Amino acid sequence: MQKLRYRPPRGHVLTRALLLALALLMLIPVAVTFLYSFSSPEEIKAFMQTRGSYDDAKWMAVKLSPQVFSLNQYYEILIRDNAVLRMFVNSAFYTVMILLGQAVVVPMMAYALSRFRFKGRDALFFAIIMLMLLPFQVTMVPNVLTLERLGIRNTVWAVILPMWFAPFYIFLIRQFMLGLPNELIEAGQVDGAGTIRCFFQIVLPVCRPVIGAAVALSFADCWNLVEQPMTYLNQRVDLQPLSVMFNQLVDSSSGIEFAGAALYILPALFIYLYFLKDILAGVQLTELK
Amino acid sequence: MFTGKKSVWLFLLPGLLGLMLFYIVPFFGGIYYSLTDGSFRNAFVGMDNYIAVWQNPMFLLGLKNTMQLSLVCAPLVWVLSFAIASLLNRLRPQGAFFRNSVLLPYLMPSSAMLLIWLVIFDYGGVVNRLLAALGLNRVIWLEGAALRVPVVLLFVWKNLGFAVIIFLSALQAIPQPLYEYARLEGAGFWRQTFGITLPMIVPTAFLVIILEWINAFKIFKEVYFIGGAYPDETVYTLQNYMNNMYGKLNYQNVTTAAYSFAVIVFALFGALFLMQRRLIRKLM
What we know:
The complex is a heterodimer. Chain A is mainly alpha-helical. Chain A has 2 domains: 7-34; 86-285, MetI-like fold, CATH 1.10.3720.10. Chain A is built from 14 helices and 1 strand, in the order H-H-H-H-E-H-H-H-H-H-H-H-H-H-H. The mean pLDDT of chain A is 89. Chain B is mostly helical. In chain B, helix 3 runs antiparallel to helix 9 (189-217), helix 3 (57-91) packs across helix 11 and helix 11 packs antiparallel against helix 12 (251-283). Chain B starts with a strand and ends with a helix. Chains A and B meet through helix 1, helix 4, strand 1, helix 5 and helix 6 of A and strand 1, helix 1, helix 3, helix 4 and helix 5 of B. Strand 1 of chain A pairs parallel with strand 1 (2-3) of chain B, so a sheet runs across the interface.
């Protein structure tokens, strides 16, 4: 019998080269931000001041790493002046509160929409799909009307509460739950588990990957909030998350902005590393169409 | 499937209450709002608000820019992500490093990346150095019409990865025997692509373009990061208009503009949906 030999497909080298170039384009901005964060504030300040010159004879230096390794940027924002840190804490507060609320609301709703038959279910699901399609410019109007009525505009709740009912995550988890085999639930029922025990002891554990994916994706949204705080908190500068304030930070360059950016990327990096497998599995196992 | 269980309301209640309170009820309330004049009498004015908004040059500018930017961003991400997913699919089961690096930006806050963007696209920055090395003239990226380029690229950089993952999992779900059979029948690469791959991923391709378009419609962050709160008029988006009107407490105007946009969005997605249905019927 002839032995089957692995034959690499044509274009393998070219494919790898293309993908490597792409991977570098994706990674370099993140890597450079970290490298710059170890420059001294003076060095960054001088470097950033060479921006915006329209003199054709001048170039900005191509800078990859700090001239002298320094932790002074971090010292400045973590210990000396806590303005950046305070906005960072705002960001973290919104993110944690939004994720906690979503953890309560979203899986339960997805469970009801996927494993139950009840009157009006299809109409409700249709409404959720429609909401999902609407961009923020549209949904901000109903949000504001209610926030105004409740008198919680320009408070932290204005950013937090509407985000709890994010239609995309309801849709995502519902699609996953829809694909679960019926036998799984029936086995639970035979053992005498009701709808609530089925939810907590059978459905939720099986949904681990898609819930992990939803947490990661939702984190990415919350950590990059701009529109919501800008509109709902437009009279409260002190409540703005760091994501809204970065461009002010650059304009008033005091040389610490890269440590701020690196610090801001760090939690996102942890979330990415921790949930990477879940994101991949969640997308792969969910019938999204 | 549970039928006739009362406990369903327990699971539905929190979400349903919230959706009703923040989205559905005020959405319909807002329609009434957009038909009144907002004075203390709140007189009914019919379509006057809509006529006023559609004659407002800033609204039209914002709408035009938002449409143009989303018409560049969404298809760009769509095509690129399919190409990259196809490349990754050829390396299977290797290529995890490439796949993971492409996904990384999706989790990164683009707000923090703005610093690097400003450095790269500066008049004396790396992009212009490349252009100069190619013998071209430098471009002022951070002002005027060219501002759209860094804005679009920041959007693409961040959103590419998720679309790639979706495409890749669809490509991997195509049964391999289909290709083996096609090869036995003597079908080449292009024949396989058009005969097997494309028809099999039509639903996914539809999903990705919808998701990316939803994302691209709300494009504002990138503009705000790079162009500031009062950007050049070539990147003045609908959200800028809404923020301005909102800041001026002109709620009637905000509501009317939002609902006008909603009609456009629904019409577009409705048309896309019909197109997909016809395409699938043709291919099957």
